[in-house]
Amino acid sequence: MKINIKQVGDIHFNDAFSKEKLYKLENVLFSDKTDYIIFTGDIIDSCDVVKDKNLRKVLVNWFKELSEKTHIIIELGNHDISKSYDNRKSWTSEYEMSFWEEISKINGITFLPNDNFYKDKNIYVTGINPSLYYYENKNLKESKNDIIYTLKHDNKYYGHLDSGKLNIFVCHSPVHMSDSEILKYINEFDLILSGHMHNGLVLPFMEKIFPKNRGIISPLKKAFPDNARGIKDIKINNKTIKLVITGGVTKFAASHGFVKKLNKLYPSVIEEIIYDTIDKSIKVKNLNL
Q: How far is 32 from 273, CA to CA, in rounded Å?
């Protein structure tokens, strides 16, 4: 049997994101068989977005429609738990609890904070939602220690997994997902799903000539970051864990100002992951909107 999973990341929904584009995305998600949809964070561009009653209603109704067709699993990203100030120059933690509670109560949706999981006869999915400090700190680099702290305290979700299932770990940021200290906690998983990096802003014509998995620049302005795009096979304990980093639906949100016009240069993509339950193979391909 083959299981079809769609991975969606970095929608960055705000008042300039058209309702038509949401439903175009839905059409791609269900253009063929879809058993699960896994969101890997940054669904909204800022918590301010869902304080607007009309925008909030659009998103809630959209998730209700999706959940009527297949099972939905949601992990959050940094934009889902924060608010920007001074034209995106600084961010502060702000969690619009009532919105995410409303989403999590929809039938057919599993919400993954740091202490939850989804499982059925085919798959097991859990993940990690780092604090805003992980992304925004005085060192201006993503804090590996912040992830390790969370993994230590929630380790009951990451070990003694059923090898008969496809075991999936979700983390919005892929930056430390191939680090040996992190892998000590999540080495039983088969698949790691991430986003956040916006394909490293590598342009389509550069894909084949640019180093594999490298980007041009990261969200924290690091030049030529690793784990920025594509698929990475991580070898550990005589097995291979596949890290899939979605290119994302949006590269530049409307709140980025004039640079949002550069979106025309980049495709909006989601990933289709096909898992064969017989031979345990995992195949991944991009789907353009």
A: 12
Structure tokens at 9: 């990341």
Which phi and psi (to 5°) does residue 100 adopt? -70, -30
pLDDT digits (tens, 9 = 90+) for 31-43: 999 999 999 999 9
pLDDT digits (tens, 9 = 90+) for 172-202: 999 999 999 999 999 999 999 999 999 999 9
Does the pLDDT value for residue 272 go beyond 70? yes
CA angle 114, 119, 122 (to 5 degrees): 140
DSSP 217: B
Backbone angles phi, psi at 218, to 5 degrees: -95, 170
Residue closest to 164 by CA, chosen among 205, 121, 204 = 121
> Torsion angle of alpha carbons 43, 46, 157, 220, nearest 10°?
100
**Looking at residue 101, what is its pLDDT?**
93
Q: What is the pTM of this model?
A: 0.95
pLDDT tens by residue, 137-160: 666 678 888 899 889 888 889 989
Phi and psi angles of residue 256, each rounded to the nearest 5 degrees, phi first: -75, -10
Residue 263, Cβ density class (10 Å: 0-12 exposed, 13-18 middle, ≥19 buried)? middle
Q: What is the DSSP letter of 48?
A: G
Strand intervals (E) in 57-175? 71-75, 82-85, 90-93, 109-111, 117-119, 123-128, 166-171
Q: Which of 72, 61, 47, 287 is nearest to 170 (CA)?
A: 72
Residue 235: what are its φ and ψ, rounded to 5°?
A: -90, 125
- Strand 166-171 and strand 191-194: pairing? parallel
